[in-house]
Amino acid sequence: MQPKLEVSQISVRYGDKEIVRKLSFSLARGSIGCLLGPSGCGKTTVLRAIAGFEPLSSGHISVDRQQISDEDHHLPPEQRQIGMVFQDFALFPNMTVSGNIRFALKGWRRKEQQQRISQLLDMIGMRDLAKAYPHQLSGGQQQRVALARAMAPRPSMLLLDEPFSSLDVELREQLAQEVRNILRQENITAILVTHDQQEAFAMADEICVMDKGRIQQQDSAYNLYHKPANRFVAGFIGEGVLIPGVVESPGSVTTELGAIQGMVPKGCKPGCKVDVLIRPDDIVHDDAAGETAVVSERAFRGSEFLYTLRMPSGIKVLCLAPSHHKHSIGETIGIRLEFDHLVVFPQEQAASSTGDSSICQSFS
Amino acid sequence: MRARLPDSRGISGRLWQPGILLLALLLSIPVLTITGFLFGPSSENWQHLKDTVLSEYLGNSALLAMGVATGTLLIGVSTAWLTAMCRFPGKTLFTWMLLLPLAMPAYIIAYTYTGMFDFAGPVQTWIRELTGWGYGDYYFPEIRSLGGAIIMLSLVLYPYVYLLARAAFLEQSICVLEVSRTLGCGAWCSFFRVALPLARPAIIAGLSLALMETLADYGTVSYFGVSVFTTGIFRTWFGMGDSVAAAKLASLLLLFVFVLVVMERISRRQARYHHTSNKYSRLPEYRLSGYKALLAFLACSAPAILGFFLPAAQLTSWALQTWDEMIDASFVTLTLNTLLLGLSASLLAALLALFLAYGKRMLATRPVHVAIRITALGYAVPGAVIAIGIIIPFAWLDNSIDSFFRDHFDFSTGLLLSGTLFTLLFAYIVRFLAVSLQTVESGLGKIKPSMDDAARSLGYRPREILFKVHLPLMKASVLTALLIVFVDVMKELPATLILRPFNFNTLAVRAFELASDERLADSSTAALMIVATGILPVLYLSKSISQSRVG
User: Fold this and answer.
1) What digits encode the pLDDT tens for the residues B145-176?
2) Cβ of B74 under 8 Å from any chain A Cβ?
């Protein structure tokens, strides 16, 4: 199927500074994509380039095979039919909820406007608040109005810039689900920008992890966690530590925790020093196990404890244990490896942590 | 996120920055001129002044400033604390009534009080009738004195301190006050050891505004015959006709003002860092009852009555006696002149403020920021200083053009700028653009850049956004800016006295001239019109205060 959105080799500059460097990705019709990355990685700039607020210094962007931006041509934002939900919602304070939505229905007939407004108010469940002004609404309500306003003219795509960052944590996940359902119902292709992986996991089908103006990996949430393409993604997504190991054979790596079976990337010959990613769920607490470690920190998380364990060599690893396994700091406990995915990075690369996409990854 | 308006890359966008820089340069002409005289050569008269009256000017100005500082602090801080933190009968009423003296120009209250309290006034006459005393049999304080000027100025300038101090008290997090109470600090202790130190930057900022007005005042001190810098400038300018000596005096006054500006800037910056918590819960109020409530009631009603209601009542009673004589064709001309000046100055100021504010929003470069700061400095410069700083370079320009045309084309252009309404308008812009700019900027600040972007992504072109988003949102602030500048121009005295065209009078000038001729009752109609108009922005101010937070 032809992708809805195609971003190809785009670069964006502010003066001398290149914020986005030769970045490409595409998005299928009706799916929800996410640009995920730390602040300052250029993700919002990519979104603003798609919306038409930032000109490209190279590359091009097309929607439905129609080119809307390249280095010479730039369709102004008002002609792109791309809706956008802003971080601060950008509701017009002098207009009511329905006034804000009506503003988006430029050139519609009065009767059609009314119909669309009441349809959207139903969708966001705010029919009673049609005449309220933005300052009378809660953050979550303002967020929904901003969404309804952006969707009102039936845009061909919807962009959401950190849409939940100004809301309470409890509200975030609930709204993320709600928004996802609405987008699904209307079959809207959407891109979300966020620095919060929980938000990305809750909303998106496809996630692009960005750093330093580049995409580090485009994948599903599951794969980002279990099959990170490079050190940056491994560190940014989820928790975990890298411990040193040595490649034994093409199918095995020896570490302090024992030998780990799994495919080793092609470049890594036997004898080669590597780093192995250990997630907290890879280490299982088992009193019967032979391997032991000393508890150095403990964080209670309700249904489970997150233990930081010190291995005899001094290396620290993380371990998730059910919360009835309560051990105090300094205690020695038994652990066992339960590995599904072997993630290995050659050690020579440790110095250049820029995360060049030379992927060195494998799984069993 | 950078705010970038769509047109910033067009031709108009490219002319914007040079335009702002040019405007800043033009508006700083008066201050630059006067500063030049600080270091420039002196005249014979200056030497004479220095040897004779300069020390008196300096001493009196310093005494006046110190007196007014004490007066405004005492009245402003105590009423602010009472209306912010205590509950007593009439509190809500006082909250805005205490602002009313802002509507009363100092020179008007000065001669109103003179009319009431001098030898022939109702008070002393009443005392004599009651006791049978005659002239010289009793002591009555002389109102037309330095002390009188201090009281008059304190009575109308304390609202600056009151406003900022009250806002600071209200913004103080409930937590710090509760902490001080848990640590065993009572009401008085909390006030002196916690609330007052926390509000100090705001109080100092208010105080420096009040002192700027004090140094700028000409009407009061001249009417009371107190020799300070402003009266000295007038005397040197009109009496001796020595522009160099007058400019020298002005430059010394400017030095004083500069100290105040620095003081205000520093305290405003500190004020920003003092909010440690954003909890907007209701502040704990001290409930006052019995004699304490009575004291609070008196402390709050006295400034409002003495600073506004009493003089306003006196003015009204005079006006009722004299209005049918005073309102004639020339009075209509006066009113029209005042309207014309006020409207054109406020319109021009609003246009320039919009130009600057939008320029700052779109360009946000360092030169633009600096230029805008410079243009905003005029609010601190006394009108007399601005007037001298304009008239000297303009006269030079007029003469240069005239002699050029006489040399090359053999005809005289005369004086093109000096003594025209244009010059007067220019002075008003220098002095009041900052007021307009501040209001417009606060309005524009409410239109977040993302709103522009939102409108564009919803299919609106830049020009449509200006009319559909900005115009409705900016309307209120631009109207407020117009109103405030209008009233300021209406009250302005010293610059108008120096720069007005020959035979061109305004209400303020007329009221002052009649009062100076001891025709106090006759001046009341013009004065009352100024006061009545001045109430409008005060009402607006009190409305916006009550909206921002329930005190």
Assistant:
1) 999 999 999 999 999 999 888 888 887 756 67
2) no
The CATH number that domain A240-350 falls under is 2.40.50.140
Return the percentage of chain B with pLDDT > 70, whole number.
93
Q: What is the dihedral of CA A108, B467, B372, B17, to 10 degrees?
A: 80
The verdict on B373 touching A (C-beta cutoff 8 Å) is: no
Q: At B410, is the pLDDT very low, low, confident or very high (cuts 50, 70, 90)?
A: confident
For the beta carbon of residue B200, count every other beta carbon within 10 angstroms. 16
Residues of chain A with CATH 3.40.50.300: 5-226
Chain B residue with minimum CA distance to A146: B454
Considering the segment(s) A5-226 as one domain, its CATH architecture is 3-Layer(aba) Sandwich (3.40)
Residue type, B100: L
Instruction: Label each residue of B227-260 as H, E or C.
Output: CCHHHHHHHHHHHHCCHHHHHHHHHHHHHHHHHH
Q: Does B451 touch chain A (CB under 8 A)?
A: yes
Q: Touching check for A63 and chain B: CB below 8 Å?
A: no
Domains and CATH numbers, chain B: 53-110+143-276+286-306 (1.10.3720.10)
Nearest to A106 among B4, B451, B460 (CB): B460
Residue A55 sits at the chain B interface (C-beta within 8 Å):
no
Distance CA B302, CA B309 (A): 10
A106/B472 CB distance under 8 A = no
User: In this complex, do A92 and B458 lie within 8 Å of one another by their Cβ atoms?
Assistant: no
Mean per-residue pLDDT, B298-327:
90
* pTM for the full predicted model: 0.79
Residue of chain B with shortest Cα separation from A150: B458
ipTM, interface predicted TM-score of the complex: 0.80
A81-119 per-position pLDDT tens digit: 999 999 889 999 989 999 999 999 988 999 999 999 999
